[in-house]
Amino acid sequence: MEETISLKELFAILRKRLWLIISLTVVAAVTAGIISFYFLTPIYQSSTELLVNQSKNDKQIDLNQVQTNLDLINTYNVIIKSPAILGIVIERMDLDLTVDQLNSQITVGSKENSQVVEVTVEDKDPKLAVELSNTIADVFRTEIKDIMNVDNVSILSKAELTENPSPVKPQPILNIAIALVVGLMGGVGLAFLIEYMDNTVKTEQDIEKILGVPVLGSILEMEPEKEMKNRRSQNSMKRGGTFDV
């Protein structure tokens, strides 16, 4: 016989384990907040934009040249993060980093059908992030002349250090919101799991479900003899009479 559960029973289970659901949700949110504010290192971001354009000697815009530049951008994105560029950056800035470590801090991208390449650097030091993005752009602009034998890259905008930079990571509010959802889902799931694993018989309805037969009657729990005598004595005293034990 296939077991089904009604919507009313679902709400009853949730109401029964409400303390567990609320507790898990609060613990998850508080934990996420503490970790975000006190344990995670703030990460700052800085970006420099490069323009891939026709040669400076060309006075007129060549549409074919523009299309060629667009096709080259994907190649440029790879070259910017290559050891040929990052190795020079590390040497110039005297960084205690490997090429792979510096590579992991850099993101290079461009908008669709755009000749603008954006070099984004993330670092725990906002000043270093600005210096890195500007240096990478400058080294690439210089070295691409020898690597690709072209002179079609210029710096469109340099990164600048603001007075009070804001970190891009972590995002405490977002982390707390995610923790609230995860904690709520975990609490609800655990509540149903506990209810599913609990196979004890508590009510007449439980007996009907297990045996598949209706309950004809029930036997009340008998009070211990000592308690019955005490109750009779108390009732007798209230009426002002006597009672022999």
UniProtKB/TrEMBL annotation:
Cellular component, GO annotation: plasma membrane
Subcellular location as annotated: Cell membrane
Region of interest: Disordered: 225-245
Top-level lineage group: Bacteria
Topological category with respect to the lipid bilayer: Multi-pass membrane protein
Domain Tyrosine-protein kinase G-rich: 144-193
Gene Ontology terms for molecular function: protein tyrosine kinase activity
Keywords: Cell membrane, Membrane, Transmembrane, Transmembrane helix
Entry annotated with the keyword rRNA-binding: no
Primary residence: membrane
Bilayer-crossing regions: 18-40, 173-194
Every Polysaccharide chain length determinant N-terminal domain range: 3-91
Family as reported in the entry's similarity comment: Belongs to the CpsC/CapA family.
Name recorded for this polypeptide: Capsular biosynthesis protein
Source organism (scientific name): Fictibacillus aquaticus
Taxonomic lineage of the native organism: Bacteria, Bacillati, Bacillota, Bacilli, Bacillales
